[in-house]
């Protein structure tokens, strides 16, 4: 009897000594990171970098596992913010488009022909409008940590070059399930259909849609040239990514862990933004990759890449852009109302700085 008890106690002591320090300190074995795209996209590479940096900087105490392709959501990309706020998912590396159902303020980035340049985008993120989006996230139980990028979105299709609004007439365009995108393409006379990214790739393959809109960082890895021969670089709107955490969980972390995670988010974001802009901003991003991140892998010039695969890539003149901006002005006005004219004014002020 006594021997049995001693054996049991010894076994318990042994089991206790085998508990890894992370568990002892109350950390989870794995923190689940929601990512809408796959690991080979710049966005996915950024998410992996975030997980790697956090592991390094916390000496393995915080182990983040990226779940690519919205696997945790069965593809329902627009649910990411809701699930992280609930604590069903710990954290996310996600597009402002995908958080917009919970954070309507995030649609400030998606007003058609409103931002148009990297400089404007960077001013907004660093300014009052970016802060307002982060503050809105805090209010719903999310802790925004840093910005990353998907990019300015470009339209591609299999039918014809798009250089004026009439060229879009009747084209069936896949858009993400955010009503602002449906409104914009309807306003331009297209026939938009919304579907999740996971289904969109099959739809391109099967020719169920004539076109789509996404940044080059998505178009290149998905090999859009296999389906579409025409791309228009019209920068009509942009989706930054936000790296965010469940707020309650975040607040329970010790300060040193919070610092390590935040700095990892910031560094991965800077790295990922540079990947997304490589070849689009002169040498600027290529220099950041080389000097700050010692990244020497070849990053293809996205436009040259698409052209080398036989695509016709159109760039629009200021007048041509204006024709699209004029045509979509009612959508901008309607959605400025939905987002709040205050925030729109803040964004205008940020961009004018
Ligand atoms: O669904 C899309 O188009 C994508 C991949 O760009 C986003 O997740 C917003």
Describe the structure.
This protein is an alpha/beta fold and 353 residues long. The chain has one domain: D-Maltodextrin-Binding Protein, domain 2. It has 16 helices and eleven strands. Strand 1, helix 3 and strand 2 form a beta-alpha-beta unit. The radius of gyration is 22 Å and the shape is globular. The structure holds (2S)-2-hydroxy-2-methyl-3-oxobutanoic acid.
Task: Detail the topology: elements first, then pairings.
Layout: H1 2-18, H2 21-24, E1 31-34, H3 42-57, E2 64-67, H4 80-86, E3 91-95, H5 96-99, H6 118-126, H7 128-139, E4 142-152, E5 154-157, E6 172-175, H8 179-187, E7 191-194, H9 197-206, E8 211-214, H10 216-219, E9 230-233, E10 238-246, H11 247-252, H12 255-277, H13 284-293, H14 302-308, E11 312-315, H15 318-339, H16 341-352
Parallel strand pairs: 1-2, 1-3, 6-7, 6-8, 9-11
Antiparallel strand pairs: 3-10, 4-10, 5-8, 5-9
Helix pairs in contact: 3-12, 6-16, 7-16, 8-15, 12-13, 15-16
The structure holds (2S)-2-hydroxy-2-methyl-3-oxobutanoic acid.
């Amino acid at each position: 009897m006594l021997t049995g008890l001693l054996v049991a106690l010894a076994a318990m002591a042994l089991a206790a000594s085998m508990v890894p320090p992370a568990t002892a300190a109350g950390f989870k074995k794995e923190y689940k990171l929601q990512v809408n795209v796959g690991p080979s996209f710049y966005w996915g590479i950024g998410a992996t970098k975030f997980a790697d940096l956090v592991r390094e900087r916390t000496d393995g105490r915080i182990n983040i596992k990226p779940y690519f392709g919205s696997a945790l959501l069965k593809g329902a990309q627009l649910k990411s913010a809701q699930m992280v706020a609930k604590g069903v998912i710990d954290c996310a590396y996600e597009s402002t488009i995908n958080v917009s159902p919970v954070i309507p303020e995030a649609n400030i980035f998606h007003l058609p022909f409103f931002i148009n340049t990297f400089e404007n985008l960077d001013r907004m993120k660093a300014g009052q409008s970016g802060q307002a989006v982060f503050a809105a996230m805090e209010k719903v139980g999310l802790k925004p940590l840093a910005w990353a990028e998907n990019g300015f979105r470009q339209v591609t299709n299999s039918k014809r070059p798009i250089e004026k609004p009439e060229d879009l007439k009747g084209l069936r365009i896949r858009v993400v399930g955010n009503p602002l995108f449906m409104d914009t393409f309807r306003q331009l006379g297209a026939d938009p259909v919304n579907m999740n990214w996971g289904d969109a790739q099959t739809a391109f393959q099967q020719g169920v849609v004539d076109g789509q809109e996404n940044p080059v960082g998505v178009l290149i890895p998905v090999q859009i040239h296999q389906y579409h021969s025409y791309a228009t670089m019209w920068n009509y709107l942009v989706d930054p990514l936000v790296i965010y955490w469940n707020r309650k969980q975040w607040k329970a972390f010790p300060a040193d862990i919070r610092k390590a995670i935040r700095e990892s988010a910031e560094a991965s974001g800077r790295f990922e933004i540079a990947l997304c802009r490589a070849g689009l901003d002169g040498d600027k991003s290529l220099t950041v990759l080389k000097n700050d991140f010692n990244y020497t892998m070849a990053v293809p010039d996205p436009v040259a890449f698409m052209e080398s695969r036989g695509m016709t890539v159109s760039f629009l003149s200021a007048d041509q852009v204006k024709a699209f901006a004029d045509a979509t002005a009612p959508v901008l006005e309607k959605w400025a109302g939905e987002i709040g004219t205050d925030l729109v004014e803040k964004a205008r002020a940020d961009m004018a700085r």
